[in-house]
Design brief:
Blueprint: H1 7-18, E1 24-27, H2 30-41, E2 49-52, H3 58-72, E3 77-80, H4 95-123, E4 126-131, H5 144-164, E5 169-176, H6 182-195, H7 199-208, H8 218-229, E6 240-243
Helix pairs in contact: 1-8, 3-4, 4-5, 6-7
This protein binds NADP nicotinamide-adenine-dinucleotide phosphate (NAP).
The site of NADP nicotinamide-adenine-dinucleotide phosphate has 28 residues, from helix 1, strand 1 and helix 6.
Length: 251
């Protein structure tokens, strides 16, 4: 469970622990992970494991999957979730930001999927979910790196879903809309600074753009991931599940 100590990743881990999965949460901050794992394990009747790993370092990302397989004898569910790239319009993203965001969003997760999928196929069951963004369905000009790279991630997920479907393995994306986490707070802060408006003003405008008139709760995104990784979702493959309060303007 990528980014399992906070935000959408943590909310997803709560669902998975509740459903009885043996969960390993990952992230870069050991102290935060240790505390989150202990909290998740309380009352669950089972220990929740954690692993320090930086997804933006592709070698380390792939090694983290091997480590989980060795510790726990295999990996049936891989949720590819971490932080988002820095905000910025298309010509404002520096070369260095493109390179680091490429590692974080595409190459790191792809290396993890490459490591995990053969074992899943051999065991005849597997679930991979990429947490992306509604930016792949509806461009957001001030999140250019997210729009461009997550479109590539969505294509990669589709291709993976074709290659492993006959082996009981599904690969899907969950695309969140505005969700009340640290990431959203950072994006709104950046938007307020760029426009000279107050944080509360951009927050209210963002919420008003959602037909539900609010940001999502991380638990609502986690519930969608939990459905896709369940045994019941075995015929849902190669798709994007949008969870955005109805904001995306497509049919
Ligand atoms: N919140 C929204 O409104 C929203 C909307 C659309 C899409 N999304 C996307 O959904 C994903 C999760 O969002 P969120 O809101 O939960 O984000 P968040 O609040 O920023 O949490 C991100 C989590 O990922 C971990 N992480 C960040 N960079 C990492 C790295 N390089 N390697 C490993 N772990 C890393 C963080 O822990 P450490 O810092 O300790 O590593 C943290 O636990 C992001 O990709 C985000 O862009 C969010």
């Amino acid at each position: 469970m990528g980014g399992g100590a906070t935000g959408i990743g943590h909310a997803t881990a709560v669902h998975l622990v509740r459903a009885g999965y043996h969960v390993v949460i990952t992230g870069r901050n050991e102290a935060v992970l240790r505390e989150a794992a202990a909290r998740l394990g309380q009352g669950a009747g089972q220990a929740v494991d954690y692993l320090v790993s930086d997804v933006a370092e592709p070698d380390a990302a792939a090694a983290s999957v091997s480590e989980v397989e060795q510790r726990h004898g295999g990996l049936d569910v891989l949720v590819l979730n971490a932080g988002g790239p820095p905000p910025g319009r298309i010509l404002e993203v520096s070369d260095e930001q493109w390179q680091s965001s490429f590692g974080l969003l595409l190459l790191g997760p792809l290396r993890m999927a490459r490591q995990a999928l053969p074992g899943m196929a051999a065991r005849g069951f597997g679930r991979v979910v990429f947490v992306t963004s509604t930016a792949v369905r509806q461009p957001q000009p001030d999140l250019a790196a997210s729009v461009v790279l997550r479109s590539a991630v969505t294509a990669a997920a589709k291709l993976l879903s074709l290659d492993f479907a006959a082996h009981g393995v599904t690969v899907n994306c969950v695309a969140p809309g505005p969700t009340a986490t640290e990431r959203r707070r950072q994006i709104l802060t950046s938007r307020a600074q760029a426009t000279g408006r107050s944080y509360d003003d951009v927050d209210a405008q963002d919420a008003a753009s959602v037909p539900a008139r609010r940001a999502g709760h991380p638990e609502e995104i986690g519930a969608a991931v939990a459905f896709l990784v369940s045994a019941d979702a075995g015929y849902v493959n190669g798709t994007v599940l949008t969870v955005d309060g109805g904001r995306t303007e497509t049919i």
